[in-house]
Write a structure and sequence with these properties.
By secondary structure, the protein is mainly α. Helix content is 43%, strand content 7%.
Length: 460
């Protein structure tokens, strides 16, 4: 059915405002009497297909230009577009002009400069969020049981000083305040708020007031009461993730730094398989590991992922890792952390991820004591690490190794290396990437000779 009356659009009017005026002028009681919920959603986003625009307007070219909306992307981890799909209005402006302005749908527009009042999205009488209905054009509540005039709200002067990034930070903090201890950074979370205004205020309090931050930290710790057996970088992941997402400096950051300076004494106990979930991108940032590391962990079931393949949209659950560490850890005599092992095991041969996978495959024994991070928390048995390294080198014997790494691994002196080369115990080193290298099969021979002190006897 074609609408007969098609009023012209007004300057700075939003597309949804025009649609509401169109419905009223053509005698409909409600916008859903003519438009489907899908059409209303498209209109609220200021986009509509050309054929529908032609049905609505007398002047297609003029209306098409009017319907365009600034959908510029935002450089923010959560908010991708600076646009809100739910009603926010200045009651005084709607009474004066009878329209809804396009700028009110911009997420970072939070108040009316003309009337110095906040844009409201909830009725102060019935506390029910506003919806897209013709009552908005008269500045009235859209709840049929209320329908009272909406009252302007004078803003806190501190809110008026916020720039765009600070406003988006407040919305981000509000999401974490409403989802305590979450480790999921949901894209476009603004669509999940019942009231953007109350969320803005809640987020601002969390970021700017120590009492609100302290209360939020307490709730996070209460929910995550099974974190005693986790390294520090796995504790309070929600707080770490929030700090990473914030674009500006806030008082909560100093509070978070003070919290991290006073860690609680860890007590090792078996962690129950409560999910410890992080998006892949944030896991790489917070924990300092690469995507390839997590791929190896997944292959040996040290973590699970939310989808069938590891990609940028994956969520990683680390609970299997800590179930394994706390249940398999054993007391061993001579053990060393990974970075201490570097003196006898050059990182050229092996990395932390490969050692962790070897532990899962029962090739290396270990002891787990929670510390500041995962590498600092695992003590590897030196003898089993040596055996694993030799086996690893043997499996890649056709490859080549730096002479300096060979000396570190075998604890050879420069005199012993010179003797081995001079007497052709090993092939003459060749330059590779401007550094002398030996074949790995020669390295295996040197390890065996060093173990029985044959090199020392030959020299002396």
């Amino acid at each position: 059915m074609t609408l007969s009356v098609k009023p012209y659009s007004k300057m700075a009017e939003s597309l949804i405002s025009y649609l509401l005026r169109l419905i009223v002028r053509n005698g409909f009681d409600d916008v859903i009497d003519y438009f489907s919920p899908r059409d209303i959603k498209e209109v609220s986003q200021n986009r509509l297909s050309p054929n529908k625009i032609d049905l609505l307007s007398n002047d297609f070219s003029n209306f098409k230009e009017f319907a365009q909306f600034d959908h510029d992307e935002i450089n923010h981890p959560i908010f991708k577009r600076n646009h809100i799909h739910t009603p926010r209005i200045c009651p005084e402006c709607t009474i004066e002009n009878g329209i809804l302005f396009k700028s009110w749908q911009i997420a970072t527009t939070i108040y009316c400069k003309k009337h110095n009042s906040l844009l409201i999205d909830t009725c102060s009488h019935c506390t029910i969020p506003l919806i897209w209905k013709e009552g908005l054009l008269e500045g009235k509540c859209t709840n049929d049981k209320c329908y009272k005039p909406l009252l302007p709200l004078t803003p806190n002067q501190e809110l008026l000083t916020l720039d765009n990034n600070q406003i988006l930070d407040c919305f981000t903090a509000a999401y974490f305040a409403e989802n305590v201890a979450t480790t999921r950074a949901i894209s476009s979370v603004e669509s999940r708020f019942d009231s953007h205004l109350s969320s803005l205020i809640k987020g601002y309090k969390l970021l700017s007031r120590n009492d609100a931050a302290q209360s939020w930290y307490a709730k996070c710790n209460e929910i995550s009461s099974n974190q005693e057996c986790l390294p520090s970088d796995f504790k309070n992941l929600s707080a770490s993730l929030l700090m990473k997402l914030l674009k500006c400096e806030w008082p909560i950051k100093s509070f978070e730094r003070n919290e991290s300076k006073n860690p609680k004494e860890p007590h090792l106990r078996l962690i129950r398989p409560t999910k410890i979930t992080l998006p892949l991108k944030e896991a790489c940032k917070i924990l300092g590991y690469e995507k390839c590391d997590f791929k190896k962990w997944f292959d040996v079931e040290l973590l699970t992922i939310s989808n069938s393949a590891l990609n940028q949209h994956s969520y990683l659950d680390f609970s299997p890792l800590f179930v394994f560490l706390t249940s398999t850890s054993t007391a061993i005599n001579k053990s060393m952390r990974f970075y201490d092992l570097k003196s006898i095991v050059p990182t050229y041969f092996i990395d932390f991820t490969e050692l962790l996978v070897a532990c899962k495959q029962e090739k290396v024994a270990f002891n787990y004591i929670p510390a500041k991070d995962l590498q600092d928390s695992i003590f590897f048995e030196v003898s089993s690490v040596r055996s694993f390294i030799e086996s690893h080198i043997n499996s890649v014997k056709d490859e080549i190794t730096k002479v300096s790494d060979v000396m570190n691994l075998t604890n050879m002196t420069s005199e012993e290396m010179s003797y081995a080369i001079k007497n052709k115990i090993v092939s003459k080193p060749r330059l590779y990437k401007h550094s002398p290298h030996l074949k790995n099969k020669d390295l295996i021979r040197l390890i065996k000779m060093k173990n029985v002190r044959q090199l020392e006897l030959n020299i002396f």
